[in-house]
Amino acid sequence: MLTAFAEAFRGVAVIRLSGVLDARTYRQARDAVIKAALDQCTAVIVDVDDLEVPDDSGWAAFTSARWHVCQWPEVVIALACAKPAVHQRLARLSISRYVPVYASVAAATMAIGQGTCRYRRRAVMRVGPHESTIGAMRFFVCDHLTRWSMPTKAPVAHTVATILVENALRYTSNGCDLRLESADDDIVVAVSDESAAPAIRRERPPGGIPTGLDIVAVLCRSWGNNPTSRGKTVWAQIASDASITQLAALLR
């Protein structure tokens, strides 16, 4: 059984959930958050201190609610919990990457009011095995960064995405998955494919023009390979000061 008590304070909706969150009550919890987000509030804070979640999959109710409102009305959703063990659990499950978690309702309210509540956006695209899909991929990146009010980041982001996707298509005939994430000015591009062979940066001759992963290394704060059960994911975190001017100078 799950109960939800909702109240509003200065435009912020606070939902206090108690009881058991499982497969039977998953939709009830998710829909309670969505309903609050649609009710002309500026943010939704969910107090989960009195919530029992026997299975990790239950926590996905909050990321699911977040995806439902990410386009409209794009209301911030945050969790409040005083239990450090739950914070660790949510971090391990990557829930807190997309739904910020705070120690109390007051702490969440303050972060939202000060504009310091990190809100991560995410978009995923399946890229086919043919190079003709590169154009659609570039439009996908530019379109989402424009929606996220980051249009000046689009040229660098789609350059990095193009390099990672083209690299993946050399090693697989089944296409790959592109993931684009942002939080504040932070942008991450990740490409997953079914090849276990890691992406390797080749040594560039002295004075040679940067190509491929050389460009990624210059434009990104960090990048790397993560093995997966189906192959690997190559990710790159774009430097906040990376610009189209820097990119043009790099390619001269």
Automatic annotation (TrEMBL):
Residues 2-112 form the STAS domain. SUPFAM superfamilies: SpoIIaa-like. Coiled coil: none annotated. It holds the Pfam family STAS. InterPro entries: Anti-sigma-factor_SerPK, HATPase_C_sf, STAS_dom, STAS_dom_sf. CDD domains: HATPase_RsbW-like (cd16936), STAS_anti-anti-sigma_factors (cd07043). Gene3D superfamilies: Histidine kinase-like ATPase, C-terminal domain, STAS domain. PANTHER family: ANTI-SIGMA-F FACTOR RSBW, ANTI-SIGMA-F FACTOR RSBW-RELATED. This is STAS domain-containing protein. It comes from Mycobacterium kubicae.
